[in-house]
Design a protein that fits this description.
Elements lengths: L2 E9 L4 E2 L9 E10 L2 E7 L9 H8 L9 E9 L2 E8 L4 E2 L3 H15 L4 E8 L2 E8 L2 E7 L2 E5 L3 E5 L3 E6 L6 H7 L3 E8 L3 E8 L3 E3 L3 H9 L5 E7 L2 E7 L3 E6 L2 E10 L1
Parallel strand pairs: 4-5, 6-8, 13-14, 15-17
Antiparallel strand pairs: 1-2, 1-20, 3-4, 3-20, 5-6, 6-7, 8-9, 9-10, 10-19, 11-12, 12-13, 14-15, 15-16, 17-18, 18-19
Length: 265
């Protein structure tokens, strides 16, 4: 798949941008660019007559130089007005089993664009797991099951939330190359603990360094093993994670950046 054209960019605020590329009228798809704490997404609502988005196509879309550019490509398929199936592709085209920030960004898109509603209660199916998200004006709160602790050592902890997250101290960030090879199926989170918040830098599987990770924020908060809310400070913004006992919630403020039609052959 070669992206031929971005023919109209309409900013969701107050202006339009026209981008000139060579036109190719074979077919086109519509997408929305969105972000949660700088973790950015291309969201495609796939309809019955739209082409299937392959790994190769997702990789081309995610390319920041020759494509549109994003951390993840999100494919939404409507089940009902309030329930959607989601498939995630990483920057490198590999599938992802879960993306908390991506679900939250999708929730804002569905609520404000498809439902024209400031408040919504939505459900999502991701790899046979069901998640609930509540949209209240500009905030989205995602509810997930309590993270499963897989490994606990003096240097790191690994949690599963559908995808795996390794949480360790920022002092071993210089071992990134070794850790990313040894724990290929994990997102890596390097943390500093403070009295009022936890600061985290994230190296995401299939993406690289990213501004934030929603499910990773939940894993990071779980390392404290205390009830109540924890502020997680990412390079791109702040998440609030709340431990409710058997469930956790992630509260963030995603934004829609622009709408685009892109052509492909």
């Amino acid at each position: 798949m070669i992206i031929k054209n971005l023919f109209l960019v309409q900013h969701l605020g107050s202006f339009k941008i026209f981008v000139d590329f060579e036109f190719s009228f074979q077919s086109f798809m519509h997408f929305v660019k969105a972000q949660t704490n700088g973790n950015d997404f291309v969201i495609i609502l796939r309809r019955e007559d739209d082409p299937v988005v392959s790994s190769e196509m997702a990789k081309a879309i995610a390319d920041r130089h020759f494509g549109i550019g994003c951390d993840q490509v999100i494919i939404l398929k409507k089940i009902t007005d309030m329930m959607y199936n989601i498939d995630f592709f990483n920057f490198d085209g590999s599938p992802a089993k879960m993306c908390g920030n991506g679900i939250c960004a999708s929730s804002i898109y569905i609520s404000k664009t498809l439902l024209s509603n400031d408040s919504s209660k939505l459900s999502f199916m991701v790899a046979d797991h069901k998640y609930m998200a509540i949209v209240e004006n500009e905030e989205v709160t995602l509810f997930v099951e309590k993270p499963i602790l897989l490994y606990d050592t003096q240097e790191y902890q690994i949690f599963s939330l559908g995808n795996n997250h390794l949480v360790c101290g920022i002092q071993i960030m210089n071992r990134l190359a070794d850790l990313s090879c040894e724990f290929r199926e994990c997102n890596l989170h390097f943390v500093e603990y403070f009295d009022e918040f936890i600061k985290v830098k994230t190296f995401e599987r299939g993406v690289g360094w990213t501004k934030a990770c929603g499910s990773g924020a939940i894993a990071v908060a779980a390392t404290r093993n205390i009830s109540g809310s924890t502020k997680i400070i990412h390079d791109g913004g702040m998440s609030i994670v709340t431990d409710h006992g058997n469930t956790f919630s992630l509260t963030v403020k995603p934004t829609l950046v622009f709408n685009v039609n892109f052509y492909n052959d």
